[in-house]
Amino acid sequence: MIRVIAKQYVDERKMDAYLAVVKELIEKTRAMDKGCISYTLCQDIKKANIMTFIEEWESMEALNNHMQTEHFKTLGAKLSDFYEARTELNIYKEYI
């Protein structure tokens, strides 16, 4: 299993627009992407502009296929308009 943690720093003034794009991305990913076990967005309790995707994929191949989908490419490109800082991305494989 592959897990992805993608921490995003969203401009608070653009949060509503960000959430609209993210909602579409999540819905399409959950419905269409084979190998997606879970795909969730969480908000930091102390800093509301820190949004973190927590994803689980059956394999690295499934994650790579997700990143090549039209919805990921199109909607992911839109998300960059809402960031204050660069996304922190970590990809993990299950160890034990």
TrEMBL record:
One Gene Ontology term of the molecular function aspect: monooxygenase activity
Protein name, entry field: Antibiotic biosynthesis monooxygenase
Keyword hit for Oxidoreductase: yes
Keywords, alphabetical: Monooxygenase, Oxidoreductase
Keyword Oxidoreductase applies: yes
SUPFAM superfamilies: Dimeric alpha+beta barrel (SSF54909)
Gene3D superfamilies: 3.30.70.100
Organism: Fusibacter paucivorans
Residues annotated as domain ABM: 2-92
